[in-house]
Design a protein that fits this description.
The protein is mostly beta strands and about 170 residues long. It folds into two domains: about 130 residues, YVTN repeat-like/Quinoprotein amine dehydrogenase (Methylamine Dehydrogenase, Chain H), CATH 2.130.10.10; about 35 residues, no CATH class. The chain contains two helices and 13 strands. The chain has a four-stranded antiparallel β-sheet, with no helix packed on it. A four-stranded antiparallel β-sheet has the order 7-8-9-10, with no helix packed on it. The longest helix is centred in the C-terminal third of the chain and has 15 residues. The chain is elongated and about 75 Å long. About 25% of the residues are buried. The model has no long low-confidence stretch (mean pLDDT about 85).
């Protein structure tokens, strides 16, 4: 990956990925660059080419990267058919399954409330990030199976109320 001046002069070659770089993004503040590679890493760079951070994505190869408008979250998409949200420190915030193919496009809305992803499966997904960030995963899972627990004749009576106290004050 190379940095160029507006006049076409090469400033610096950024080295560090072990495979092709498929996605790059400037931070909204314009002071950093993120690169996503098929080598399954995200690299954060200063504009002078200094490597700030390497994040191992555990995604089988990355195709895209995007910064949130506030610059505090990085979204990636890749071969594992998931969109992943990361902190700048490299902590995985959440993985969003939904695509049936490689995620090849990512964009945040200007207000940062939504993320749009597109895949080579022909699907575009609009992710509601406010809802995702406030999601209680255990409560969500129990809501999903609560009806099954109550109505399936094969469930023992003792298990029918397994989720009754989840998500209630």
């Amino acid at each position: 990956m190379k940095l160029w001046k507006p006049d076409g002069t090469a400033v610096k070659t950024l080295r560090g990925h072990e495979d092709g770089v498929w996605g790059v993004a400037f931070s909204p503040q314009g002071n950093a660059i993120a690169s996503a590679s098929w080598d399954d890493t995200i690299k954060l760079w200063k504009l002078d080419g200094t490597l700030l951070k390497t994040i191992k994505a555990q995604s089988q190869g990355l195709a895209r990267v995007a910064f949130s408008p506030d610059g505090q979250t990085i979204a990636t998409g890749g071969v594992d058919n998931q969109v992943k949200l990361w902190t700048l420190e490299g902590k995985l915030l959440t993985a969003l399954p939904g695509h049936q193919g490689t995620v090849i496009s990512l964009a945040f809305t200007a207000d940062g409330n939504f993320l749009v992803s597109g895949g080579n499966d022909g699907i575009v997904i609009l992710w509601d990030l406010k809802q995702i960030r406030s999601l209680n995963e255990l409560e969500y899972a129990c809501n999903w199976v609560r009806d099954y627990l109550r109505t399936n004749v094969e469930v023992e009576d003792s298990a029918r109320h397994l989720c009754d106290n989840i998500g209630k004050p």
